[in-house]
Amino acid sequence: MRRFAEITKTAAAFALLVFAWAGSSTLAQSADSARVAVVELFTSQGCSSCPPADKILGEIAGAPNVLALSLNVDYWDYLGWKDTLGSPEHSRRQREYAIRRGDGRVYTPQMVVAGKNHVVGSYKGRVTAEIKSVLAKPDSAFVPVSVAAQSQEVTIDIGEAGAQVGAKDATIWLMLVSREVSQKIKRGENRGRKIVYHNVVRKMMPVGMWHGKPMKVSLPKSSLMADGVEDCVVVLQVDGTGPIIGASMLQNLAQTASN
Asked: pLDDT tens-digit profile of 157-179?
């Protein structure tokens, strides 16, 4: 694990707790459930501790009702390799999470689950436990979110606040995602390694505010198209970087562009 405040090196070898997702595993929920656990991995191509976490994110990305995202940060670029996927927006989002939690902990690899608790991204057992805890909540603790593509627009539908949602105001984030990116690292701590990143966030933007009632947001599809972007994700999040109370993914955005 690498901390932002002070650089520490972890042991090269460490044990990963084994967890079998087994297809429709214990994380599976009903098809019409609003429950979803959003997992954000703050990672870096310049961090030697990150590749195991990158691999784990790829594994949990296939689990039912889990929306796993990679957000590469840029604050390790000075170590000799500029992260090709790094973004100051991701670094800022991670810092804002730490400020909101009050613990000030900013490090890589760090997974933030449902916009709240954070765990070391290479500790699969702890990551799994956090996901299961989120998905154990009733549907009334989530807000239904769906996203669909029409001929020239993308439409986001957000439902009403359930009895246990608590918040009545939330930011609607839209994230443009590359499903898989392979990168050969030529310098720095991961020199010579080829790392695969999953559900890579290329761009994120707030597209509206939700106030507890059903609403719809329509966006021109052409404004969302960019090289490498395959999918888009919508996240409903209290105060911008607070608890995530709803989310959805639209796959194959590029393929629907000409429909």
From this structure: 999 998 999 878 999 999 999 99
pTM above threshold 0.70 = yes
Q: What is the 3-state secondary structure (H, E, C) of 60-86?
A: HCCCCCEEEEEEECCCCHHHCCCCCCC
**Complete domains list, the chain, with CATH:** 34-250 (3.40.30.10)
Q: Which pair of tokens denotes residue 141? A: 């603790």
Whole-angstrom Cα distance, residue 184 to residue 192? 7
Burial 10-32, CB ≥16 within 10 A → b, else e: eeeeeeeeebebeeeeebeeeee
Q: Is 153 exposed, middle or buried (0-12, 13-18, 19+ CB in 10 A)?
A: middle
For each successive 10 residues of the chain (259 residues), what is the average pLDDT?
45 31 36 85 97 97 95 96 97 98 97 97 97 96 95 94 89 97 95 97 97 96 91 96 96 67
Q: Encoding tokens for residue 242?
A: 């607070």
Q: Which residue has the tokens 């669909």?
A: 148
- Cα distance between residue 136 and residue 152, in whole Å: 38
Contact by Cβ (8 Å): 49, 88: no
d(Cα 225, Cα 145) in Å, to the nearest integer?
A: 21
Which residues are paired to 145 by β-bridges? 158
Q: How many angstroms separate the CA atoms of 40 and 49, rounded? A: 16
Question: What 3-state class would DSSP assign to 259?
Answer: coil
